[in-house]
Specification:
The protein is an alpha+beta fold. It contains seven helices and eight strands.
Length: 316
Amino acid sequence: MQDWARELPAIAAERVLRQRRSSVSGSLLSAPAALALASAGLEPAGEAMGCAVMQLGGVGSYCGYSGMGPAPVVVSSGGSGRAWRGYGLYVKALYQGYDAALARLRAEATGLGADGVVGVDLQVVSLDTGTREFVALGTAVRWRTGSRPAAQPSTPGQVPVFLTELGGQDVAKAAAAGWAPLGVAIGLSLALRHRDGAVELASRMLAPNAEVAGLTHLVHDCRSDARDQFARRCATFPGAAQAVVSSMRLRTFEAGCSMGSDAGAEAMMVGTVLGRSGPGRTEPPPVLQIMSLRGTGSRPVRRTTSATADPWRTEG
C-alpha cells in the first residue's frame, strides 16, 4: 500500500484510485478560476476531500471569579499569565479535528499526483449531541510540464502538497508576483468572563445602545488570542513569509457556574500561509484586445508604462 493511502479510510483511498483511472479530472472551480489557474501553469487533477468525526464531550469550565472586584477574562491558551481550567481540552479536540481533515485532504491530493489544493473549504457539521464532522474540500491541481516555479524542486516528495483557501484567481495573482501558498493555518480560542454585577447592570439597567464593557473585553481578548494562535501556527511552516487571512469567525454562548453564570466566546481565524517562490514576472503585461469607439475597426494595442503615453489608447 502506498504511503498516502495509509493516511486515508479505505473508501477514500478507493475514490482516489477511481479518479486516477478516469480520463476526466473533476473540479470545483468556476470557469474564471480555471482560466486564471491555466494562465499560471496549473491544471485540475481532481476533487479532493478530507474528513474526521470527533466526539466533543462536556469538559466543564472555570471562570476564575472569586466574587471580589471585576471578573477576569480567561482564555483557553492560558496566555498572558491568566489561569485556565476546563475548555483547553475542548480546543485541543477542535484542532485535532481540523488537522485530521486537512491531513487527509493532502493525502488524497498526493494520491492524485497533485502539487496542491486550491479553494479549500472548511466546514463543521453537528451530527448529533457532542459529535461533529470536520470536512475539508477543494480542487487538487498540478503544475503543467515546464510551468513549475524554478524555486520549487520537481522531485516528488521534496515539496509537500500545498493547501490554500485562496481561489483560482488569487493563486494565479500570487504566482505572478512570486508567491506560493504553503498551507492553511488555523487559530482557535475560547474565553470566559463571569457575568458579575457590572455586566448585569450594563446589560439590564442602562439605556439601549450602550456599550457593555465587560463583554467588549471578553470578545476582544478571545479574538486577540485566536490571532496569536494563528500567528504561532503560521510560523511552523518552513519558508513562511506572510499570511492571508480569509475568515475570522466568532460565536458567543452562556455557561453556568457555581456563582451564577459566565459569558463565553469562541473565535476562529483561518488563512493561507505564503512563501517566496521566485522573483515574479518581469515581462510586460499581455496585449489587451480593445474595441475602438472610432469606427468599426480595432486592433490590439500594448499597454505602456511610459509617463507620457495614454495606457488606454486605441487605434482603429
